[in-house]
Predict the 3D structure of the following.
Amino acid sequence: MKTRKNYQKKIINQIQVLTRSLIQLLPLKKALQASEELVDSVNKGLVQSDIIRQLGVEILSVSVLSIRPNPETSKALEADAREKLLLAADEAIYHRRNASV
């Protein structure tokens, strides 16, 4: 039973390493939307992994259930989006006022 848990830990660790290596290369907003790219990259990495090969297992598929920022990053993204919406609304008001004059 311990051997099985050891295998699981090694496989999960390898997946986390591969995931982090791709996520670190992407800008934040793209990383949050890159599930397909992430799955492809992790699958390829697992096929080439010496650790997985040494375990004698074959990973048939990988899926990404969700990609979420931590709470602080989420708030910052929301603030940025809110500022852009307010700016667009201000510009629309400005153009309407200029058109009516």
